[in-house]
Amino acid sequence: MSNISLENLSEQERAAVNKILKELSAGGSSLRLNSLLYADYKEIPVDIITFIEDDKYLGYAWKDNEGNSKLYPYWANVLKQIFPDPFTTSVNNLIESGARGLGKSEIAVTVAAYLMYRVMCLKNPIDYYGLKPTEKICFAFMNITKDLAEDIANSKFQNTIKLSPWFMNRGSMVGRENILWVPPDYIQIIIGSQASHVLGLPIFFAFFDEISFIRNQDIDKQKAKAIDMIDTAIGGMKTRFINRGKSPTLLILASSKRSEKSFLEVHMKKKLESEKENVIIVDEPVWNIKPASTYSGKKFKVALGNKFLMSQIIPDGDNIDIWRDKGYTIIDVPVEFRADFMDDIERALCDFAGISSSEITKYISGAAVSEIKNETMVNPFTKDIIEIGNAPDDKLQYYDLFDISKVPQELKSKPLFIHLDMSVSGDMTGIAGVWITGKKPATEGVNQANDLSFRLAFSVSVKAPKGYQVSFEKNKNFIYWLKERGFKIAGVSSDSFQSVETGQVLTSRGYKYETISVDRVDPQTHICKPYQYFRTTIYEKRLQIYNSTTLIDEIINLERNINTGKVDHPDGFRKDVCDAVCGAIWNASQHAEEFAYNYGESLQTAVDFNESFNTTDIIKDFEESLKKRPENVAKYIDFGFGPAQEIFGSNDGVIMW
């Protein structure tokens, strides 16, 4: 108290202050001080918890059917930190990040209602805050689109207010079909999605919901729009309401976790550096905010990766120290989320653990790719990028730059799948072939495609010379040439771009052709299945590749958009060869049953397989399979010596020689 200066006060004012100090010193409170504090109020505000739980205010909105409070203790503590008493707002910034399902928007709506309530308790709010008689105190609800902003303001906020007797007795209702509560004339509710919606207005409260989700393909434009909106709102707060270095205003930014590069993630770090004492940040996993009774108490462990390590579920019983030694951070997760983490670990980390996954920016780690490189393998193409087009005098064919002597002879008999990521001009055409090199014996109930092993046969990017286009005819000529040289082409696929003519021609010449879009994302799961399978083959070391700088750079620079699930490349990078390899592997995986033991199995595998079965059983199984064939057996069976011949005119037995 000794630090209080009374020099600039009149004699009467100094006397009043001294009396207040004596009262505070004697009993811890002062009626004179209270009378001064309350002089501007026609109604004394209640504290934030009373406001939420008392049925006179928001009680009905925050209680279940049995009358129990739905306010989590975690949020109650945060709100008491923001509003330590009925008159004070301790900070001007609340950032709600972390997991989904935390109730971020519900808390923001409640904060808006409490601030509006305190304003409405004043005798003359416009005079109290020093505004012009023509101005209004503005409460802004902002989102990436105006429709989404209205969903918060006209749905959650309105529904909350309509359950409050206090507000319903102090406002008016307008509208016929969509009936809305309207505050007193000196308060304005703003619903917007642009900086212009808050420009030049005295913003007392602003809520920017899902601020990291501004939809724009250009990330720099995303950030610029977010910054513009927020700075405009802050300008309306500081220029109108700040008094003696203090401001009663509050800005709330909310977004679920996404990428370490998302706007809110970057903004949080800056706020902690520049306004550490003026910001409260909520950044927690869902299980830290919801009551412990929500979960069974059983947990499993997850190893958090980085740009070099993929996040993984740790098998039960594994030595945790080994994972830590590899560079992983370990977290415990309620077992109720295990299925979500198994389906899509990066998305689960964001949605439930509230952790920005570096896997969003690096879909496949460089460390994993390094482990599948086989230094003894080489690319038969003499260059990773070849420049061949459709110019009249361009007689060069792809196979002219293909050194067939570098292809191991024993691999030619293995099933080869080829994918073309096609283009005409501008982008390059990626072409790749992969061999199925083996597959584990099938077990009941197990998808055998998951056990296929692959070896990269070749890969190349075809660039059209300036002024010309990539030749679709030369694409097909290369496939014909491979077949003529003894390659066992089991399937050919291409993306949907200009695929009709290519598919028709290849099909007419006896090739198994598929149209495959490796970029296609399942709308329900947000998973790009071709790339998910491609990544799995890398991390499970079921793919061998040679040391191609072009291909490896494309793989390790892949990015995944957590919102859409699309796997793409950052600006300045390509993925045409990577798409070609991914497409070839995905096509091969869809034909696992056709190549169970026909191709590529070692002699030992066949021996191991045969030793595990009774010979009589094998013959019986073969007979049963033949009986399931159409009547004309000979038409469908050819062992390489001409069509099989029906001997006895019945299916009573099988003769093989």
Low-confidence stretches: 214-218, 596-615, 632-636, 646-657
> Based on the structure given, which CATH architecture of the largest domain is correct?
2-Layer Sandwich
- Overall pLDDT level: 82
- Total tally of structural domains: 4
Tell me the CATH topology of the largest domain: Nucleotidyltransferase, domain 5
β-sheet strand percentage: 15-25%
- The protein's oligomeric status is single chain
Q: CATH class of the largest domain, please? A: Alpha Beta
What is the rounded distance between the termini?
Answer: 109 Å
**Which range best describes the helical content: under 10%, 10-25%, 25-40%, 40-55%, 55-70% or over 70%?**
25-40%
Q: Based on Cα principal axes, name the global outline.
A: elongated
By DSSP (H or I, 4+ residues per run), the number of helices equals 23
Largest sheet: 7 strands, mixed
| Rg | 35 Å
Structural class: alpha/beta
Counting DSSP E segments of at least 2 residues, the number of strands comes to 20
Q: Can you describe this structure?
A:
This protein is α/β, with parallel strands linked by helices and 657 residues long. It folds into four domains: 1-40, no CATH class; 70-157 and 185-288, P-loop containing nucleotide triphosphate hydrolases (Rossmann fold); 298-358, no CATH class; 369-595, Nucleotidyltransferase, domain 5, CATH 3.30.420.240. The protein contains 23 helices and 20 strands. Strands 12, 13, 14, 15, 16, 17 and 18 form a seven-stranded mixed sheet that branches. It has a six-stranded parallel sheet with strand order 5-2-6-7-1-8, with helices on both faces. A three-stranded antiparallel sheet has the order 10-9-11. Helix 5 (104-120) crosses helix 7. The longest helix is centred in the middle third of the chain and has 23 residues, at 219-241. The radius of gyration is 35 Å and the shape is elongated.
